[in-house]
Predict the 3D structure of the following.
Amino acid sequence: MLNWRFDGQPVDDVPLIRFWKLKDGTDCVLMSAGPVLELRLIDRGVAIRECRCSNIEDAREVARQWRTDYEVDHPCSPSSLESDVGN
């Protein structure tokens, strides 16, 4: 099944859940890519990391690990976290 944007163009990926978002614009989102759940770490509109997940619980755990990894690689203050869904 194809999903459609308002301008009539097909869209392959549909965002389902945002697990977290940083003030610098980095998002960790769960997408529905056709029949597949795909977790993506998006920085400035570009997916910098992706993982296919069999269920939402697995995706949530991976999102937690990615957040920890990202914070180690990109130190920032706790106030830089804009939203934290699922923790």
